[in-house]
Amino acid sequence: MKAVCWMGKEDMQVHEVPEPKILNPRDAIVRVTTTCICGSDLHLYDGLVPTLAQGDILGHEFMGEVVETGPGVDSAKLKTGDRVVVPFTIACGGCGPCHEELWSLCDNSNPNAWFVEKLMGHSPSGLFGYTHMMGGYAGGQAQYVRVPFADVGPIKVPESLRDDQVVFLSDIFPTGYMAAENCNIKPGDTVAIWGCGPIGQFAIRSAFMMGAGRVIAIDHVPERLQMAREGGAETLNFDDVDVLEALREITGSKGPDACMDAVGMEASGHGMQYFYDSAKQKLRLVQDRIGVLRQCIQACRKGGTVSVPGVYAGFDDKVPLGAFMNKSLTLKTGQTHMMRYMKPLLERIEKGEIDPSFVISHRLPLTQAPEGYRIFREKEDHCTKVVLDPWAEAAAA
Ligand SMILES: [Zn+2]
Ligand SMILES: [Zn+2]
User: Fold this and answer.
1) Is residue 235 left, alpha or beta, with left meaning phi > 0 and alpha meaning psi from -120 to 50?
2) Could you tell me the fold of the domain covering 2-171+336-389?
3) pTM
4) Residues 314, 277: contact at Cβ < 8 Å?
5) How many angstroms separate the alpha carbon of residue 109 from the centre of ligand 2?
6) CATH number of this structure's domain 173-333
7) Ligand 2 center to residue 175 CA distance, Å?
8) Mind listing the pLDDT tens digit for each residue in 262-299?
9) 355 alpha carbon – ligand 2 mean position (Å)
10) 78: part of which helix (H) or strand (E)?
């Protein structure tokens, strides 16, 4: 089968690889019909997350048809022929965190938990296509994928909805939604969101669903700012304004009630601190550039909430803990507890409250994934989101 393989920093290649097989009783094999490139895949593309190996198949946003199930899969929940969206986090359904619906913290789905425990004390769940320290699972940017604990995560989707309407239930829609929920929004609140990529876009729309009065979206890519305005947000371009000053002005010096970092470890920026972060990241003295997180803490109103859906990996310095403590801020974060959100958000799509396909800018055959990674990283050609068709032949040149 064809699959998108990480061959090194900024080197994605499509290779013929063996098809996956059922390894454990609760596995299923899914024939992938649509898969996507995620902003967090770009951290892998840029070589910033350790424990990737040459040849690893990436991809954690995918959907398709179940073509085989292991003997332990509960057929009342999943069977051959079902059309499913698969969440990017893998959960067993039976451990303590799973019973608490903290699905992204499953104790049983990361076979390499020992490695993460050394870094973080405890390991989150395994993830599809996201390094060996997160389980070493082959990802879904491929024609077929093995799905462990297949009767827990995948959600069946009705034939009446197109792939491009539901595929984002695999990550970015629930992730944007949980990030907004983590803002602790009360009716009329002002929410500032750094990063108008796909997660930011879904967070903007989710914040309004939760009753936010104003959403202020911050980025510097014109088409992303435009898409944010179409979602009802006011926008700030950080190339043009001093963001902290602008937010003070907009909120009558009070500060936003909640600030969201939907950027993560590869924050862009200006000034001394940005260059300091970049230099240290290049020297591997820190894993993350935390410029956005600093601004969130600085901008947030006293007693407000900082929500972090952006991905961070390591140990970082110059975190303004003084401001954080003295302003009585709350910090909420985490990989998304996917199975809490997939069904209710599918219902919103079915009711026509939102059509998540608005975020797509590029539809490419899987064979053109390397080009997809490149233009998404470079934000060329107004690229906001790339979806891949594993079965389409490359368009004739
Ligand atoms: Zn993703
Ligand atoms: Zn579990």
Assistant:
1) beta
2) Quinone Oxidoreductase; Chain A, domain 1 (3.90.180)
3) 0.93
4) no
5) 7
6) 3.40.50.720
7) 19
8) 997 766 656 666 666 666 666 666 666 778 999 999 99
9) 31
10) none
